[in-house]
Design brief:
single chain, about 220 residues, alpha/beta, Rossmann fold, two-stranded antiparallel ribbon, 7 helices, 7 strands, globular
Amino acid sequence: MIAVVLLICLLLGVLATALLNIFVIAKADDYIISAKEAAGIDADCIIVLGALVYSEDVLSDILQDRVDIAVSLYKSGASDRILMSGDNSRVGYNEGFAMAKSAIEQGVEAECLFEDDAGFSTYETMYRARDVFQAKKVIIVTQGFHISRAVYLARSLGLEAYGVTSDLHEYTSENYNNIRETGARVKAVFTAIFKPEPTYLGETIPISGKGNVADKIT
């Protein structure tokens, strides 16, 4: 009897996970667009979500692809501002600045680049994009496994958000990322309902002004 109950609970859990994943993907699907379509959006900014960096000058393949797509969108006129959001919670590790340096090397003006050092999660990035950087209309750049959740969370916070995928290569972590994302989408549904405040907010840095990266570039 106990085994039967446990089996039923397991099946219900699997079903709930599947349904919540379908829900998140469906809610975001209409807003995931091509780079060509994004060129006509005229967004307040392009948001690049952080990932692993090996050093200030070496980005992981996943992150480099995100930056490269963001730069191409910037050059196409999709937006004249790029927000690099990532983790800078420990000394010597700064995803946002590493991304910004890569963008500058590709011809993006430092004054057009914003660095968010407290983008500790996808949700916190979107919350801070809205409240700290005062963005309203955004284009989010990340890989296909991640894009639905990112767009869903942004729109749950009231942002007019669109997503452009950045799958330029095959990644060694692809299977792990897909498995992890299954659980992350479930969590995203509850996060969207309760809308907790991010770890940090702070003073506003209007995305329409001069990028805060410019002051760090000598």
